Amino acid sequence: MIPPSFDYVAPKTLSDAVAALGGNENAKILAGGQSLIPLMRFRLAGPTMLVDLTRVEGLSYIEEKDGWLRIGAMTRQSAVEHSELVNQKYSLLADTVKVLSDPVVRNLGTVGGNVANADPVNDEPATMLAYGAEVVAVGPQGERVIPISSFYLDLYQSALARDEILTEVRVPAPKPRSGGAYLKLERKVGDYATAAVAAQAELDGDDNFASVGIGLTNVGLTAIKATAAEEFLKGKAATDENFREAAKLAAEAAQPIADMRGSEEYKRSLVKTYTVRVLRLAVQRAKGG
Amino acid sequence: MSKHHITITINGKAHEADVESRLLLVHFLRENLNMTGTHIGCDTTSCGACTVQLNGKPVKSCTVLAVQADGMEIKTIEGLATNGKLHPIQEAFHEKHGLQCGFCTPGMLMTSSALLERNPHPTEDEIRHAISGNLCRCTGYMNIVKAVQYAADKMAEGGQNG
Q: What pLDDT was estimated at residue B158?
Protein backbone atom coordinates (compact mmCIF):
# COMPACT_ATOMS: atom_id res chain seq x y z
CA MET A 1 0.00 0.00 0.00
CA ILE A 2 1.38 3.33 -1.12
CA PRO A 3 0.13 6.70 0.07
CA PRO A 4 -1.40 9.13 -2.43
CA SER A 5 0.98 11.83 -3.70
CA PHE A 6 1.75 14.78 -1.49
CA ASP A 7 4.25 17.59 -1.16
CA TYR A 8 6.88 17.35 1.51
CA VAL A 9 8.94 19.98 3.26
CA ALA A 10 11.44 19.56 6.06
CA PRO A 11 12.03 23.03 7.52
CA LYS A 12 14.96 23.68 9.82
CA THR A 13 13.27 26.25 12.04
CA LEU A 14 9.98 26.32 13.89
CA SER A 15 8.93 29.60 12.26
CA ASP A 16 9.45 28.07 8.80
CA ALA A 17 7.39 25.05 9.91
CA VAL A 18 4.56 27.30 11.16
CA ALA A 19 4.66 29.25 7.87
CA ALA A 20 4.56 26.04 5.79
CA LEU A 21 1.67 24.66 7.84
CA GLY A 22 -0.24 27.94 7.54
CA GLY A 23 0.39 28.15 3.79
CA ASN A 24 -1.56 25.02 2.85
CA GLU A 25 -4.89 24.24 4.43
CA ASN A 26 -4.49 20.52 3.74
CA ALA A 27 -1.02 20.33 5.26
CA LYS A 28 -0.27 18.12 8.24
CA ILE A 29 2.63 17.89 10.64
CA LEU A 30 4.81 14.78 10.33
CA ALA A 31 6.44 13.93 13.67
CA GLY A 32 7.49 10.28 14.10
CA GLY A 33 5.00 9.18 11.44
CA GLN A 34 4.10 5.95 13.21
CA SER A 35 0.38 6.77 13.18
CA LEU A 36 0.16 9.18 10.25
CA ILE A 37 2.08 7.15 7.64
CA PRO A 38 -0.06 4.00 8.19
CA LEU A 39 -3.21 6.16 7.98
CA MET A 40 -2.00 7.62 4.70
CA ARG A 41 -1.10 4.20 3.36
CA PHE A 42 -4.61 2.98 4.11
CA ARG A 43 -5.79 6.23 2.49
CA LEU A 44 -7.71 7.13 5.61
CA ALA A 45 -5.79 10.41 5.65
CA GLY A 46 -4.82 12.36 2.55
CA PRO A 47 -2.93 15.52 3.43
CA THR A 48 -1.59 17.27 0.32
CA MET A 49 1.51 18.37 2.17
CA LEU A 50 3.58 17.03 5.04
CA VAL A 51 5.64 19.37 7.16
CA ASP A 52 8.32 17.14 8.68
CA LEU A 53 9.61 18.37 12.06
CA THR A 54 12.61 15.98 12.10
CA ARG A 55 15.07 18.67 11.06
CA VAL A 56 13.75 21.46 13.28
CA GLU A 57 16.40 22.10 15.91
CA GLY A 58 15.62 22.03 19.61
CA LEU A 59 12.44 19.98 19.78
CA SER A 60 13.94 16.91 21.41
CA TYR A 61 14.67 17.14 25.14
CA ILE A 62 13.58 15.85 28.55
CA GLU A 63 14.38 18.28 31.35
CA GLU A 64 13.05 19.38 34.70
CA LYS A 65 12.70 23.13 35.12
CA ASP A 66 10.62 25.36 37.39
CA GLY A 67 8.56 22.51 38.79
CA TRP A 68 7.73 20.92 35.42
CA LEU A 69 9.09 18.03 33.43
CA ARG A 70 9.41 19.50 29.95
CA ILE A 71 9.38 17.10 27.04
CA GLY A 72 10.10 18.44 23.57
CA ALA A 73 7.50 17.41 21.00
CA MET A 74 9.98 15.45 18.85
CA THR A 75 11.37 13.45 21.76
CA ARG A 76 11.24 9.80 20.72
CA GLN A 77 9.34 7.43 22.99
CA SER A 78 12.48 5.32 23.36
CA ALA A 79 14.30 8.35 24.83
CA VAL A 80 11.54 8.67 27.44
CA GLU A 81 11.65 4.93 28.08
CA HIS A 82 15.39 5.06 28.81
CA SER A 83 15.38 8.38 30.68
CA GLU A 84 16.76 7.96 34.19
CA LEU A 85 14.84 11.01 35.35
CA VAL A 86 11.54 9.61 34.07
CA ASN A 87 12.21 6.16 35.50
CA GLN A 88 13.10 7.57 38.91
CA LYS A 89 10.45 10.24 39.39
CA TYR A 90 7.66 9.80 36.88
CA SER A 91 6.43 6.27 37.40
CA LEU A 92 3.12 6.84 35.59
CA LEU A 93 4.89 8.06 32.44
CA ALA A 94 7.54 5.33 32.76
CA ASP A 95 4.81 2.67 32.95
CA THR A 96 2.98 4.18 29.98
CA VAL A 97 5.88 4.40 27.60
CA LYS A 98 6.89 0.77 28.23
CA VAL A 99 3.56 -0.50 26.92
CA LEU A 100 3.09 2.11 24.19
CA SER A 101 3.17 0.27 20.86
CA ASP A 102 6.37 -1.81 20.55
CA PRO A 103 10.10 -1.15 21.09
CA VAL A 104 10.88 -0.68 17.39
CA VAL A 105 8.00 1.74 16.84
CA ARG A 106 9.11 3.65 19.96
CA ASN A 107 12.41 4.49 18.25
CA LEU A 108 10.50 6.78 15.89
CA GLY A 109 7.22 7.57 17.64
CA THR A 110 7.24 10.88 19.50
CA VAL A 111 5.60 12.24 22.63
CA GLY A 112 4.29 15.26 20.73
CA GLY A 113 2.74 13.03 18.08
CA ASN A 114 1.09 10.71 20.59
CA VAL A 115 -0.42 13.66 22.47
CA ALA A 116 -1.34 15.86 19.48
CA ASN A 117 -2.87 13.08 17.39
CA ALA A 118 -5.99 13.20 19.61
CA ASP A 119 -6.71 9.56 18.90
CA PRO A 120 -8.27 7.80 21.92
CA VAL A 121 -6.24 4.65 21.21
CA ASN A 122 -2.99 6.46 22.05
CA ASP A 123 -1.68 5.91 25.57
CA GLU A 124 -0.12 9.24 26.56
CA PRO A 125 -3.31 11.35 26.43
CA ALA A 126 -4.88 9.53 29.42
CA THR A 127 -1.55 9.70 31.25
CA MET A 128 -1.28 13.43 30.67
CA LEU A 129 -4.88 13.90 31.85
CA ALA A 130 -4.03 12.04 35.07
CA TYR A 131 -0.92 14.18 35.59
CA GLY A 132 -2.73 17.46 34.88
CA ALA A 133 -0.18 18.24 32.17
CA GLU A 134 -0.02 21.24 29.86
CA VAL A 135 0.93 21.51 26.22
CA VAL A 136 2.71 24.38 24.52
CA ALA A 137 1.51 25.37 21.06
CA VAL A 138 3.21 27.73 18.64
CA GLY A 139 1.38 29.43 15.78
CA PRO A 140 1.65 32.60 13.68
CA GLN A 141 0.46 34.61 16.71
CA GLY A 142 3.19 33.18 18.94
CA GLU A 143 3.11 30.72 21.81
CA ARG A 144 0.30 29.70 24.14
CA VAL A 145 -0.09 27.13 26.88
CA ILE A 146 -3.12 24.83 26.86
CA PRO A 147 -4.12 22.74 29.89
CA ILE A 148 -4.51 19.12 28.81
CA SER A 149 -7.94 19.01 30.47
CA SER A 150 -9.26 21.32 27.74
CA PHE A 151 -7.11 19.93 24.89
CA TYR A 152 -9.14 16.96 23.66
CA LEU A 153 -12.35 18.03 21.96
CA ASP A 154 -13.43 15.05 19.88
CA LEU A 155 -12.10 12.14 17.85
CA TYR A 156 -8.87 13.39 16.20
CA GLN A 157 -9.79 16.92 17.26
CA SER A 158 -7.70 18.89 19.69
CA ALA A 159 -7.66 22.51 20.78
CA LEU A 160 -4.74 23.16 18.42
CA ALA A 161 -5.62 25.65 15.70
CA ARG A 162 -5.01 24.39 12.18
CA ASP A 163 -1.83 26.44 11.88
CA GLU A 164 -0.48 25.68 15.34
CA ILE A 165 2.26 23.19 16.20
CA LEU A 166 2.53 21.41 19.53
CA THR A 167 6.11 22.00 20.67
CA GLU A 168 6.26 20.80 24.28
CA VAL A 169 4.39 18.69 26.82
CA ARG A 170 4.79 19.75 30.46
CA VAL A 171 4.17 17.37 33.33
CA PRO A 172 4.00 18.83 36.84
CA ALA A 173 6.88 17.51 38.96
CA PRO A 174 5.42 15.12 41.55
CA LYS A 175 5.31 16.42 45.11
CA PRO A 176 6.66 14.28 47.96
CA ARG A 177 4.37 11.34 48.77
CA SER A 178 3.18 11.10 45.17
CA GLY A 179 2.99 8.05 42.97
CA GLY A 180 1.45 6.99 39.72
CA ALA A 181 0.87 3.94 37.56
CA TYR A 182 -0.56 2.87 34.20
CA LEU A 183 -2.27 -0.44 33.59
CA LYS A 184 -3.16 -1.53 30.08
CA LEU A 185 -4.77 -4.67 28.75
CA GLU A 186 -3.58 -5.40 25.23
CA ARG A 187 -4.05 -8.57 23.20
CA LYS A 188 -0.42 -8.53 22.14
CA VAL A 189 2.54 -6.17 22.28
CA GLY A 190 1.96 -3.35 19.84
CA ASP A 191 -1.82 -3.54 20.01
CA TYR A 192 -3.94 -0.63 21.10
CA ALA A 193 -5.46 -0.95 24.56
CA THR A 194 -8.63 -2.94 25.03
CA ALA A 195 -8.79 -0.46 27.87
CA ALA A 196 -6.16 1.19 30.06
CA VAL A 197 -6.23 3.32 33.20
CA ALA A 198 -3.72 5.97 34.32
CA ALA A 199 -3.59 7.24 37.89
CA GLN A 200 -1.44 9.82 39.67
CA ALA A 201 -1.97 10.23 43.42
CA GLU A 202 -0.62 12.51 46.14
CA LEU A 203 -1.16 11.60 49.78
CA ASP A 204 -1.29 13.91 52.79
CA GLY A 205 0.26 13.18 56.21
CA ASP A 206 -2.74 11.03 57.21
CA ASP A 207 -2.57 8.90 54.04
CA ASN A 208 -5.65 10.61 52.64
CA PHE A 209 -5.68 11.70 49.01
CA ALA A 210 -4.39 15.27 48.72
CA SER A 211 -5.05 14.99 45.00
CA VAL A 212 -5.62 12.29 42.45
CA GLY A 213 -5.83 12.24 38.67
CA ILE A 214 -7.39 9.40 36.66
CA GLY A 215 -7.33 9.04 32.88
CA LEU A 216 -8.89 6.35 30.66
CA THR A 217 -7.53 5.09 27.31
CA ASN A 218 -9.58 3.85 24.35
CA VAL A 219 -13.00 3.79 25.98
CA GLY A 220 -14.51 6.82 24.23
CA LEU A 221 -14.03 9.28 21.40
CA THR A 222 -11.23 10.96 23.35
CA ALA A 223 -9.10 9.97 26.30
CA ILE A 224 -11.35 10.51 29.31
CA LYS A 225 -10.60 12.27 32.58
CA ALA A 226 -12.58 10.41 35.23
CA THR A 227 -13.54 13.59 37.06
CA ALA A 228 -16.27 12.15 39.32
CA ALA A 229 -13.92 9.43 40.56
CA GLU A 230 -11.17 12.01 41.20
CA GLU A 231 -13.53 14.26 43.14
CA PHE A 232 -14.89 11.35 45.16
CA LEU A 233 -11.38 10.37 46.30
CA LYS A 234 -10.11 13.83 47.21
CA GLY A 235 -9.60 14.07 50.98
CA LYS A 236 -10.64 10.44 51.49
CA ALA A 237 -8.56 7.62 52.92
CA ALA A 238 -6.57 5.46 50.51
CA THR A 239 -8.52 2.28 51.21
CA ASP A 240 -9.72 -0.52 48.95
CA GLU A 241 -13.31 0.38 49.77
CA ASN A 242 -12.79 3.90 48.44
CA PHE A 243 -10.86 2.60 45.42
CA ARG A 244 -13.84 0.38 44.56
CA GLU A 245 -16.29 3.26 44.85
CA ALA A 246 -14.06 5.44 42.65
CA ALA A 247 -13.73 2.57 40.17
CA LYS A 248 -17.51 2.43 39.79
CA LEU A 249 -17.52 6.13 38.95
CA ALA A 250 -14.63 5.69 36.48
CA ALA A 251 -16.50 2.84 34.77
CA GLU A 252 -19.56 5.08 34.50
CA ALA A 253 -17.43 7.78 32.88
CA ALA A 254 -16.18 5.32 30.25
CA GLN A 255 -18.05 5.27 26.94
CA PRO A 256 -16.69 2.16 25.25
CA ILE A 257 -18.07 0.65 22.08
CA ALA A 258 -18.09 -3.05 21.24
CA ASP A 259 -15.42 -4.07 18.73
CA MET A 260 -13.01 -6.91 18.06
CA ARG A 261 -11.36 -6.22 21.42
CA GLY A 262 -14.51 -6.86 23.46
CA SER A 263 -18.05 -5.88 24.29
CA GLU A 264 -19.09 -2.64 25.91
CA GLU A 265 -19.83 -4.43 29.21
CA TYR A 266 -16.48 -6.19 29.18
CA LYS A 267 -14.54 -2.97 28.65
CA ARG A 268 -16.52 -1.15 31.35
CA SER A 269 -15.82 -4.00 33.74
CA LEU A 270 -12.15 -3.84 32.78
CA VAL A 271 -12.02 -0.12 33.57
CA LYS A 272 -13.51 -0.87 36.99
CA THR A 273 -11.03 -3.66 37.79
CA TYR A 274 -8.02 -1.75 36.48
CA THR A 275 -8.99 1.45 38.31
CA VAL A 276 -8.88 -0.42 41.65
CA ARG A 277 -5.55 -2.04 40.76
CA VAL A 278 -3.93 1.11 39.42
CA LEU A 279 -4.98 3.13 42.48
CA ARG A 280 -3.49 0.47 44.76
CA LEU A 281 -0.23 0.63 42.84
CA ALA A 282 -0.16 4.43 42.72
CA VAL A 283 -0.75 4.63 46.50
CA GLN A 284 1.87 1.97 47.20
CA ARG A 285 4.38 3.99 45.17
CA ALA A 286 3.32 7.24 46.87
CA LYS A 287 4.16 5.60 50.20
CA GLY A 288 7.56 4.71 48.79
CA GLY A 289 6.85 1.04 48.13
CA MET B 1 3.87 15.65 -6.79
CA SER B 2 7.05 16.76 -5.17
CA LYS B 3 10.31 15.06 -6.09
CA HIS B 4 13.33 15.24 -3.88
CA HIS B 5 16.99 14.62 -4.38
CA ILE B 6 18.17 12.47 -1.49
CA THR B 7 21.43 10.95 -0.34
CA ILE B 8 21.22 8.04 2.06
CA THR B 9 24.25 6.15 3.32
CA ILE B 10 23.37 2.48 3.27
CA ASN B 11 25.79 -0.01 4.77
CA GLY B 12 28.53 2.59 4.50
CA LYS B 13 27.91 3.51 0.87
CA ALA B 14 26.20 6.74 -0.21
CA HIS B 15 23.22 6.30 -2.53
CA GLU B 16 21.75 9.28 -4.36
CA ALA B 17 18.37 9.31 -6.03
CA ASP B 18 15.45 11.50 -7.06
CA VAL B 19 12.41 10.14 -5.26
CA GLU B 20 8.76 10.99 -4.87
CA SER B 21 7.90 12.12 -1.38
CA ARG B 22 5.51 9.19 -0.97
CA LEU B 23 8.16 6.54 -1.64
CA LEU B 24 8.59 4.36 1.45
CA LEU B 25 12.08 3.52 2.64
CA VAL B 26 11.45 -0.22 2.27
CA HIS B 27 10.45 0.23 -1.38
CA PHE B 28 13.49 2.42 -1.97
CA LEU B 29 15.69 -0.39 -0.67
CA ARG B 30 13.96 -3.25 -2.41
CA GLU B 31 12.87 -1.72 -5.70
CA ASN B 32 15.21 1.19 -6.42
CA LEU B 33 18.36 -0.45 -5.06
CA ASN B 34 17.39 -4.09 -5.50
CA MET B 35 18.35 -4.82 -1.89
CA THR B 36 15.71 -7.43 -1.21
CA GLY B 37 17.14 -8.73 2.07
CA THR B 38 14.76 -6.41 3.89
CA HIS B 39 11.34 -8.08 3.79
CA ILE B 40 7.83 -6.68 3.65
CA GLY B 41 5.58 -8.65 5.96
CA CYS B 42 2.40 -7.08 7.26
CA ASP B 43 2.58 -3.65 5.61
CA THR B 44 0.94 -2.27 8.78
CA THR B 45 3.80 -1.42 11.18
CA SER B 46 3.08 -4.58 13.16
CA CYS B 47 5.40 -7.43 12.24
CA GLY B 48 8.89 -5.93 12.06
CA ALA B 49 10.05 -8.02 9.06
CA CYS B 50 11.13 -4.74 7.39
CA THR B 51 13.26 -3.59 10.34
CA VAL B 52 16.46 -1.74 9.41
CA GLN B 53 18.73 0.41 11.55
CA LEU B 54 18.32 4.15 11.08
CA ASN B 55 21.23 6.02 12.66
CA GLY B 56 21.87 2.87 14.71
CA LYS B 57 18.32 2.30 15.94
CA PRO B 58 15.96 -0.36 14.63
CA VAL B 59 12.93 1.11 12.83
CA LYS B 60 10.20 -0.34 10.62
CA SER B 61 11.15 0.73 7.11
CA CYS B 62 7.57 0.34 5.85
CA THR B 63 6.67 3.29 8.05
CA VAL B 64 9.43 5.70 7.09
CA LEU B 65 9.46 7.82 3.94
CA ALA B 66 12.68 7.56 1.97
CA VAL B 67 12.86 11.35 1.96
CA GLN B 68 12.75 11.39 5.78
CA ALA B 69 16.00 9.42 5.78
CA ASP B 70 17.82 11.94 3.57
CA GLY B 71 21.30 12.48 4.99
CA MET B 72 20.96 9.63 7.46
CA GLU B 73 22.71 6.29 7.86
CA ILE B 74 20.92 3.03 7.25
CA LYS B 75 22.14 -0.45 8.01
CA THR B 76 20.32 -3.38 6.44
CA ILE B 77 20.75 -7.12 6.70
CA GLU B 78 23.11 -6.93 3.70
CA GLY B 79 25.48 -4.82 5.83
CA LEU B 80 25.77 -7.13 8.84
CA ALA B 81 28.54 -9.40 7.55
CA THR B 82 31.92 -7.74 7.09
CA ASN B 83 34.51 -8.95 4.55
CA GLY B 84 32.62 -12.15 4.01
CA LYS B 85 32.59 -12.96 7.74
CA LEU B 86 29.21 -13.39 9.36
CA HIS B 87 28.26 -11.08 12.22
CA PRO B 88 28.11 -13.05 15.52
CA ILE B 89 24.32 -12.63 15.54
CA GLN B 90 24.12 -14.29 12.10
CA GLU B 91 26.37 -17.11 13.22
CA ALA B 92 24.25 -17.50 16.35
CA PHE B 93 20.93 -17.78 14.47
CA HIS B 94 22.58 -20.45 12.32
CA GLU B 95 24.12 -22.28 15.26
CA LYS B 96 21.01 -22.18 17.48
CA HIS B 97 18.55 -22.63 14.61
CA GLY B 98 16.81 -19.35 15.42
CA LEU B 99 14.52 -19.61 12.43
CA GLN B 100 12.36 -21.91 10.39
CA CYS B 101 10.90 -20.18 7.33
CA GLY B 102 13.31 -17.26 7.66
CA PHE B 103 10.88 -14.53 6.73
CA CYS B 104 11.19 -12.57 10.00
CA THR B 105 14.92 -13.23 10.27
CA PRO B 106 16.37 -10.08 8.64
CA GLY B 107 14.25 -7.87 10.92
CA MET B 108 14.95 -10.05 13.93
CA LEU B 109 18.71 -9.75 13.29
CA MET B 110 18.60 -5.97 12.86
CA THR B 111 16.68 -5.55 16.11
CA SER B 112 18.75 -8.00 18.13
CA SER B 113 22.12 -6.74 16.85
CA ALA B 114 21.06 -3.21 17.86
CA LEU B 115 20.11 -4.55 21.30
CA LEU B 116 23.56 -6.08 21.74
CA GLU B 117 25.20 -2.78 20.77
CA ARG B 118 23.22 -1.00 23.49
CA ASN B 119 23.23 -3.81 26.04
CA PRO B 120 25.98 -6.41 25.49
CA HIS B 121 24.71 -8.70 28.27
CA PRO B 122 20.93 -8.70 28.12
CA THR B 123 18.85 -10.90 30.40
CA GLU B 124 16.29 -13.23 28.86
CA ASP B 125 13.56 -10.74 29.83
CA GLU B 126 15.43 -7.90 28.17
CA ILE B 127 15.85 -9.93 24.99
CA ARG B 128 12.17 -10.86 24.89
CA HIS B 129 11.20 -7.24 25.53
CA ALA B 130 13.55 -5.92 22.81
CA ILE B 131 12.24 -8.28 20.12
CA SER B 132 8.58 -7.89 21.07
CA GLY B 133 8.01 -5.67 18.01
CA ASN B 134 9.26 -8.42 15.68
CA LEU B 135 6.88 -11.28 15.08
CA CYS B 136 7.92 -14.85 14.32
CA ARG B 137 5.20 -17.33 13.43
CA CYS B 138 7.42 -20.41 13.35
CA THR B 139 9.78 -20.75 16.26
CA GLY B 140 7.86 -19.75 19.35
CA TYR B 141 10.89 -17.51 20.00
CA MET B 142 12.74 -20.11 22.09
CA ASN B 143 15.63 -20.56 19.69
CA ILE B 144 15.69 -16.88 18.80
CA VAL B 145 16.25 -16.01 22.46
CA LYS B 146 18.94 -18.72 22.69
CA ALA B 147 20.62 -17.33 19.58
CA VAL B 148 20.76 -13.80 20.99
CA GLN B 149 22.25 -15.17 24.22
CA TYR B 150 24.78 -17.19 22.20
CA ALA B 151 25.75 -14.09 20.19
CA ALA B 152 26.15 -12.07 23.39
CA ASP B 153 28.54 -14.72 24.76
CA LYS B 154 30.48 -14.91 21.51
CA MET B 155 30.83 -11.14 21.31
CA ALA B 156 32.01 -10.99 24.93
CA GLU B 157 34.65 -13.65 24.20
CA GLY B 158 35.69 -11.81 21.04
CA GLY B 159 36.02 -8.59 23.04
CA GLN B 160 38.27 -10.30 25.59
CA ASN B 161 40.45 -11.85 22.93
CA GLY B 162 40.65 -8.70 20.89
A: 82
Q: Which CATH architecture has domain A62-172?
A: 2-Layer Sandwich (3.30)
Contacts of B22 in chain A (CB under 8 A): 2-6, 40
For B88-156, CATH gives 1.10.150.120
Beta bridge partners of A172: A68
pLDDT band at B159 (very low <50, low <70, confident <90, very high): low
> How far is Cα of residue A149 from the mean position of the Cα atoms in its chain?
11
Return d(Cα A141, Cα A164) in angstroms, integer.
Answer: 9
**Which of A4, A10, A103 minimises the CB distance to B132?**
A103
Q: What is the per-residue pLDDT for B161?
A: 44
Would you say the pTM of this structure is higher than 0.90?
A: yes
Subunit contact A37:B65, Cβ cutoff 8 A: yes
User: How confident is the model at residue B162, as a pLDDT?
Assistant: 38
ipTM exceeding 0.90?
yes
Q: What is the fold of B3-79? A: Ubiquitin-like (UB roll) (3.10.20)
Out of B43, B64, B133, closest to residue A33 by CB? B64
For residues B94-120, give the mean pLDDT: 97
**pLDDT tens-place string over residues A12-21:** 999 999 999 9
B133 interfaces chain A, CB cutoff of 8 Å: yes
Q: Say if the Cβ atoms of B21 and A5 lie within 8 Å.
A: yes
Q: What is the tens place of the pLDDT at every residue in A58-107?
A: 999 999 999 999 999 999 999 999 999 999 999 999 999 999 999 999 99
Q: How far is B65 from chain A (nearest CA, A)?
A: 8
State the CATH class of domain A178-286: alpha beta
Q: Give the start-end residues of each E strand in chain A.
A: 7-9, 27-30, 49-52, 62-65, 68-72, 134-139, 142-147, 152-154, 157-158, 165-172, 178-185, 195-203, 209-217, 224-225
Q: Report domain extents, chain A.
A: 7-52, 62-172, 178-286
Query: What is the assigned CATH class of domain A7-52?
Result: alpha beta
**Is the Cα torsion angle A215, A108, A59, A80 positive or negative in sign?**
positive
- Give me the phi and psi of B119, to 5 degrees please: -140, 90
Domain parsing of chain B, residue ranges = 3-79, 88-156
Average pLDDT (A254-275) is: 98
